[in-house]
Design brief:
The protein is mainly alpha-helical. It has three domains: about 160 residues, no CATH class; about 180 residues, Cytochrome p450; about 120 residues, no CATH class. It is built from 20 helices and four strands. It has a four-stranded mixed beta sheet with strand order 1-2-4-3. Strand 1 and strand 2 form a beta hairpin. Helix 9 crosses helix 20. It binds protoporphyrin IX containing FE (HEM). Protoporphyrin IX containing FE binds next to helix 14, helix 15 and helix 20. Pfam families: p450. Belongs to the cytochrome P450 family. Keywords: Heme, Iron, Metal-binding, Monooxygenase, Oxidoreductase. This is Sterol 26-hydroxylase, mitochondrial-like. GO terms for molecular function: heme binding; iron ion binding; monooxygenase activity; oxidoreductase activity, acting on paired donors, with incorporation or reduction of molecular oxygen.
Length: about 500
């Protein structure tokens, strides 16, 4: 859902990850020195090395884009549309979405140039609808919606316990408990609803697994998703997440001034209210536990939320804002990746066998791997990596042009317009960057030792977690969840 939502918002403002969008609105008066140097590299998209003006850049008109989206049916698969467009227009083209002009960059070399020039406070999108809710209800922005120096402050507080390997490995036991319950649940479902064989809705089950996993890390509590009957409140929360993402896709298509009059705006606000309410209840519960332990002079143990509360670097409202956004970013991303990895394993028996041999050599019998075991399973990691190449959950990243003056100047010889974004679609599935394969997958390409050098490609051909200071905050936890779930399954 995050993926879809991001893609969809990308249609308007090209928000989040994977594609780089250049934030518009800044005057493009470049310093003379830069203008003179104009270092057009020979590997840019401009074959003749001459900067192109916006007018010279090819691409579909607004009507053509609408035709592609709604008549040809690419609305849900805009990444596929971009692949098709790159075949028609080359690695650099512009698309129009009403008043918004988006520059698409489909070249690993150019993507590298953009990503390397992001500056200290990259901007992905202004997420106007999400920010609109927060302003309406006086809620704080989290890492997804915050910008500038405020965003940097949030990241500096959230990063250590999410990204430092020693902290992340301390979540391994928590995740393993969820994995054990998930494996039991899958067995129960097969027995009771699938005639001993089938799990009827594996995607839905993996969603619950990812939800339970991330909640157990963030809130240090179990939500009951692995029980035979999922508690009503938890089920309602999951439904609200889905509704919020679905409504987000629609709301961004309308101008901000019209939102209060839209019939579904109220619903959108109500779903956010529910998400914040549930998160608030969980945070309050944790605070009470901490207070009780403090009164009894007991040592206070906990992980992510406990740390945030005890560190007192954020207000309660800020913690709520951040933790809710972490939760939203951390469910379907992980569950989709596990789904696709399982699909590939199911269809590629050789790879499945190779993985099986790796797993049983490190964890014989029913032993679930701990974090040190996982480090000894390079093939498992390579499978996840290859899945993320073939099915990137966030297939585009947006970057802010404001921090990319040089890059912008390389590409265009004129001032950018206030409504221009630059979007960098994924290259991972483009034959040009990974010519040998669509299917079968080739996880071997990601093995640092024993991998086939011929299969290795441009490092910016596939950047599933983004790059730089604004890269994925949950990357390590996601990797832990994905890798921990496989050996047991
Ligand atoms: C396989 C799973 C995942 C993938 C492929 C993924 C991918 C990404 C990508 C590509 C970005 C954008 C990076 C950029 O803009 O340069 C991102 C951002 C983000 N991700 Fe993930 N993600 C995953 C799981 C998670 C999890 C589990 C969490 C939460 C624990 C999470 C939290 C976030 C947050 C908060 C951001 C926004 C960071 C910011 O703007 O500062 N992600 N993710």
């Amino acid at each position: 859902m995050l993926r879809r939502s991001l893609l969809n918002v990308g249609l308007r403002t090209k928000q989040h990850a994977g594609t780089q969008s250049a934030a518009a609105g800044q005057s493009a008066q470049f310093p003379r020195r830069q203008q003179r140097s104009r270092p057009v590299s020979s590997n840019t998209a401009m074959g003749d090395h001459k900067p192109k003006s916006m007018e010279e850049l090819g691409g579909p008109s607004f009507m053509t884009t609408l035709y592609w989206l709604f008549v040809k049916g690419y609305f849900q698969t805009t990444q596929q549309m971009q692949i098709e467009h790159s075949k028609i227009y080359g690695p650099l083209w512009k698309s129009k979405y009403g008043p918004l002009v988006v520059v698409n960059v489909a070249s690993a070399e150019l993507i590298e140039q953009v990503l390397r020039q992001e500056g200290r406070h990259p901007v992905r999108t202004d997420m106007p609808h999400w920010r609109g809710y927060r302003e309406l209800r006086n809620q704080a922005h989290g890492p997804l919606t915050e910008m500038g120096a405020k965003w940097m402050r949030i990241r500096s507080i959230l990063n250590p316990r999410m990204l430092k390997p020693k902290h992340v490995s301390s979540y391994a036991n928590t995740i393993n408990e969820v994995v054990t319950d998930f494996i039991e649940r899958v067995a129960w479902l097969r027995e009771n609803t699938g005639q001993g064989v089938m799990v009827n809705d594996l995607t839905g089950e993996l969603y619950k697994f990812a939800f339970e996993g991330i909640c157990s890390v963030l809130f240090e509590t179990r939500m009951g998703c692995m029980e035979a009957v999922v508690p009503e409140e938890t089920q309602k929360f999951i439904v609200s997440v889905g509704e919020m993402f679905t409504l987000s896709q629609i709301i961004v298509l309308f101008p901000k001034s019209s939102w209060p009059y839209l019939p579904f705006w109220k619903k959108f606000v109500a779903t956010w209210d529910h998400l914040f309410k549930v998160a608030e209840d969980l945070v309050k519960k944790k605070m009470e536990e901490i207070q009780k332990s403090a009164q009894l002079d007991q040592s206070i143990e906990g992980a992510y939320l406990t740390h945030l509360l005890l560190s007192e670097k954020m207000t309660l409202t800020e913690i709520l804002g951040s933790i809710t956004e972490l939760l939203l970013a951390g469910v379907d991303t992980t569950s989709n990746t596990i789904s696709w990895s399982l699909y590939h394993l199911a269809t590629e028996s050789k790879i499945q066998e190779q993985l099986y041999q790796e797993v049983i050599s490190i964890c014989p019998g029913d032993k679930l791997p701990d974090s040190s075991d996982i480090t000894q399973m390079p093939f498992l990691k390579a499978i996840i990596r290859e899945t993320l190449r073939l099915y990137p959950v966030v297939p585009e990243t947006l970057a802010s042009l404001s921090k990319m003056r040089l890059w912008w100047e390389i590409i265009f010889s004129q001032k950018r317009r206030s409504s221009t974004s630059v979007t960098m679609p994924f290259c991972p599935m483009m034959k040009k960057f990974f010519p040998e394969t669509q299917r079968p997958s080739l996880p071997q390409r990601w093995l640092s030792r024993g991998g086939d050098d011929k299969l290795k490609q441009h490092p910016f051909g596939s950047v599933p977690f983004g790059f730089g200071v604004r890269a994925c905050l949950g990357r390590r936890v996601a990797e832990l969840e994905c890798t921990s779930s496989f050996p047991g399954l």
